[in-house]
Amino acid sequence: MADPVYALVDCNSFYASCERVFRPDLLRTPIVVLSNNDGCVIARSADAKPFVKMGALFHEIRGDLKRHGIVAFSSNYALY
Question: What's 14-74's CATH class?
Answer without folding.
Answer: alpha beta
